[in-house]
Write a structure and sequence with these properties.
Order of helices and strands: EEHEHEHEHHEEHEHEEHHHH
Helix content: 25-40%
Strand content: 15-25%
Strand order of the largest sheet: 3-2-1-4-5-6-9
Number of strands: 10
CATH superfamily of the largest domain: NAD(P)-binding Rossmann-like Domain
Shape: globular
Largest sheet: 7 strands, mixed
Distance between the termini: 46 Å
Oligomer: single chain
Number of domains: 2
Structural class: alpha/beta
Length: about 325
Amino acid sequence: MPSDNAGAAATATGNGQTVCVTGADDPKNAHLRELEGAKERLILCKADLLDYEGLKAAISGCHGVFHTASPVTDDPEQMVEPAVIGTKNVITAAADAKVKRVVFTSSIGAVYMDPNRTPDQVVDESCWSDLDFCKNTKNWYCYGKAVAEQAAWEVAKEKGVELVVVCPVLVLGPLLQSSVNASIIHILKYLTGSAKKYANSVQAYVHVRDVALAHILVYETPSASGRYLCAESVLHRGDVCHILAKFFPEYPVPTKCSDEVNPRAEPYKFTNQKLKDLGLEFTPVKQCLYDTVMCLQEKGHLPLPVPPQQEESIRMK
């Protein structure tokens, strides 16, 4: 899953071990040490996207690199430079280490931001976001992801690195860490009552396990090449709220749209056939939403529903 930690850099594989390049001693990464097999096969190395020597030391001796990290912000200074320079550093370090293949986590933000795309046009791996449109609308996250991916392709070609790119949409599903990230807040706000209405807009979704498997498939499949759009469904916000309310009626899920004047936004068309051709079977979006809420309950971010009998007992007292 894309990281919102600008200090994280890459995951590399080598010598039968997994090396996670991140803030090694940062308490927020403690969940990584609890993964199955972590004691035997996980090494945490402290590095930074902007620290080339640190990246080089961590990647040295590895067969593959998964560059998943990116700042998640709409501040152009915090987003664009770390994303682009960090990507160049990772790929250059991988080239120096003679890494077999680099898998780069891009984003739908680098793909679909194009005001000139017609409703009938299918979004696929050939699509690129319009950089001028991103700048004019101050969407610096999408701009940063697009220019970072462009830089990845340029440096990979220059250095002779075998590069494959995964472009996930908004990622849902269980969290490994205890904190809530930006993707999950998108759903959490509909369950806590902080969002009284839903927006007249659409969003594409994918399960986190499918994103992880997509990365493994493009790394392990010798014929994999180019970009891979990683998406399961595009839903209107109203449809998301309807699904959540059906599964979890005990929460104050919004039932009204904030825009009752304009026509209902229509989901865009897309294809995920390239990943299906590699054998990926996508998890239905309803399951994504269900798994997300169950995880939020388990980790204490949502109150557990009170059984009807217990609720009646509470009232009596």
